[in-house]
Design goal:
By secondary structure, the chain is mainly α. The chain contains 20 helices and no strands. Helix 3 runs antiparallel to helix 4 and helix 6 runs antiparallel to helix 11.
Length: 418
């Protein structure tokens, strides 16, 4: 299986001279990721207000904001496979148009059941991550791929836009205003992406069915190693970005607008740190970057579990966690770009991205349940510390061989079956 993939890997690695075209493709893909993530995160800032209006429990509120996360995560598996087969030029506009429907539906529904169902379809916007990563990877050689994918990860900033704008827009112009604005932006991007996106030169369309290819990548041991690391890194970011408004309101008694703005600051810092993680991974290797990020997350989570004063300790702790989780997310996908077979990057991205999103699905539910039972978030934060520490040890021990095969040599071992 390895031998027939090798020529594609070499051809991709030997295509450095596409800077102008690659820059445009990276910009368009990043914009698409941003606007779809903006849509994907719309329910998070509204969660505390919906909880009060519908008299929901903490667990019910957590489920409401978590549903789009899990759907967007699992949806990355088929969407990544479809991107490998049909290319981002076809899949990106299609996913964007599909996201418009639940966004507009949010202007018409108010019951909890209807919001859950709409949130399910809103998760479509979260699948665009699995469209952009293989697209960007195809346009950049391995030596620059970590930074390029890190820049693409800036699209996570759509979550920050949602936190900055959703509540103020609803307060100023009515409850429907944020949804109508996002629907219009999505429609504009769908047309733009169809006109500007182009498949990378030398891209080959897989002949195997999407299911067969998912089975193939599922046999790669490195796929599941990456899934675990991304579930901790990106999952931690997603969990905090969707649940932090509720956490800040409950623990520090902030109003919805203040909580949403502070969450936006958390997201902006994580977004800014993601390309830094990719850049460091290109120059060092993703493995040491991940070890340090996860180890420090474990320390910061312990500090925050004691519920220190908001200024300055909790603010520094939460922002530090944002930077570390963002850098770790960038480092994981720098590792994907180095070790995944070139023609299977989309399928691997789908599985790894799904794991990351699912990693963000569980903590909000757990935090809501623990708070409902114990009246404290400390246990949930201590569990986060334990998981982050386990990820650091796992990376240092199990992934150490990848550090020795940094660069192009890492691609072949990754293709070996588990």
């Amino acid at each position: 299986m390895t031998s027939d993939r090798q020529p594609t890997q070499i051809r991709t690695a030997q295509q450095p001279g596409r800077a102008a075209g690659a820059t445009l493709q990276l910009a368009v893909a990043t914009l698409g990721f941003l606007v779809n993530f903006w849509a994907w995160a719309l329910l998070g800032p509204l969660g505390p207000g919906i909880k009060e209006r519908l008299d929901l429990s903490f667990a019910a509120q957590s489920l409401l904001v978590a549903v789009p996360v899990v759907v967007g995560s699992l949806g990355r598996i088929p969407v990544g496979a479809l991107t490998d087969r049909y290319g981002a030029r076809a899949v990106f506009p299609l996913v964007t148009v599909a996201t418009i429907v639940p966004v507009l539906t949010l202007t018409m529904v108010s019951s909890y059941t209807a919001l859950i169902v709409t949130g399910f379809f809103l998760g479509i916007g979260g699948t665009t991550f699995a469209v952009g990563v293989p697209h960007v990877s195809g346009w950049y050689p391995p030596a620059r791929r970590g930074f390029a994918i890190g820049v693409f990860g800036v699209g996570m900033g759509g979550t920050a836009i949602a936190n900055f704008t959703t509540v103020p827009l609803a307060d100023a112009f009515g409850d429907s205003a944020p949804f109508l604005l996002v629907a219009a932006v999505l429609a504009g991007y769908a047309g733009l992406s169809f006109l500007l996106l182009r498949d990378a030169p030398g891209r080959t369309r897989p002949t195997a069915s999407p299911w067969r290819r998912l089975v193939d990548v599922g046999r790669l041991s490195v796929t599941w190693q990456l899934c675990f690391l991304y579930a901790v890194g990106f999952g931690g970011f997603v969990a905090f970005s969707v649940y932090l408004p509720a956490y800040l309101r409950t623990t520090y008694h902030l109003n919805p607008t203040d909580g949403a703005l502070r969450t936006a600051g958390f997201v902006v810092l994580a977004v800014a740190a993601r390309p830094v993680g990719g850049w460091l991974s290109d120059r060092l290797h993703p493995v040491p970057v991940l070890v340090w990020c996860f180890a420090l997350v474990a320390v910061v989570a312990v500090v925050q579990s004691f519920e220190p004063t908001l200024m300055p300790v909790a603010t520094v702790a939460l922002l530090g966690m944002a930077a570390l989780l963002g850098a770790a997310s960038g480092a994981v996908f720098a590792l994907v770009g180095k070790v995944a077979p070139a023609e299977q990057v989309g399928a691997v991205t789908g599985l790894v991205g799904a794991a990351g999103g699912l990693g963000g699905f569980v903590p909000p539910l757990l935090m809501g349940w623990v708070y409902g039972e114990q009246g404290s978030y400390s246990i949930g934060l201590m569990l986060l510390s334990d998981v982050a520490l386990a990820a650091a040890v796992f990376t240092a021990v199990k992934m150490a061989g990848l550090a020795k095969r940094a660069g192009g040599a890492g691609a072949r071992p990754a293709a070996a079956s588990s």
